[in-house]
Amino acid sequence: MTGAHVLEPHRVVPVVVLHDAGSAGDLGAALASGGLPVAEVTFRTAAAPDALRTLAERGDLLVGAGTVLTPDQVDIAHDCGARFVVSPGLSADVVRRCQEIGMPVLPGTSTATEIMRALELGVGTVKFFPAEQCGGVGMLKALSAAFPDVRFVPTGGIAADSAAAYLDLPPVLAVGGSWMVPPDLVRQGRWDEVAALCAETVARLPPSP
Ligand SMILES: O=C(O)C(=O)C[C@H](O)[C@H](O)COP(=O)(O)O
């Protein structure tokens, strides 16, 4: 289960909460100019589908849907141009719908049991969520020792100065987080500062394995 994954070239996934789809274009430009041309648009706001569509239509970003809780949301995300789906937990219905339509899916897991369930469903790359609150790097090392073929995308509570410790672990495909797209900056349209946080994140990445 270690084939190429759509997130392969992207070691950091900005997790975005947008309340105004009209600002999606500016946000996309900030991410791209800051060197992180990828976004997980969380389905926590009514603006998410339109924001996702706007970002996907730019063509220079890899855009996915986050906080996907139902198969219907998988279909909406697909229609809006999402290239991957992320869930906070493991829903067999969400996973199966993604598999039916060929959508890469990252179900959230934080226990060995959930990882085993993901494997039973044929998923070999999972989100580790909420990473910091669930024991961070130490917990992930312990879990991944039992699942040498599983790859992880730790997300939740990670910051610019803690991302590298995860990325240094071979089973970590990428890390996700909102630290470079803080809600206040996004709401206030402070795109230069978002771009600067992205660039700072890129500058602090450890060398690629
Ligand atoms: O619900 C989902 O599917 C999510 O993607 C949740 C996000 O991963 C976290 O909310 C991001 O965590 P922070 O970096 O701590 O803000």
UniProtKB/TrEMBL annotation:
Protein name: 2-dehydro-3-deoxy-phosphogluconate aldolase
Swiss-Prot/TrEMBL catalytic activity: 2-dehydro-3-deoxy-6-phospho-D-gluconate = D-glyceraldehyde 3-phosphate + pyruvate
First-level EC class: lyase
Coiled coil: none
Keywords: Carbohydrate metabolism, Lyase, Schiff base
Pathway linked to the protein: Carbohydrate acid metabolism; 2-dehydro-3-deoxy-D-gluconate degradation; D-glyceraldehyde 3-phosphate and pyruvate from 2-dehydro-3-deoxy-D-gluconate: step 2/2
The organism's place on the tree of life at top rank: Bacteria
EC number, as in UniProt: 4.1.2.14
Pfam families: Aldolase
MF GO annotations: 2-dehydro-3-deoxy-phosphogluconate aldolase activity
Entry keyword annotation includes Lyase: yes
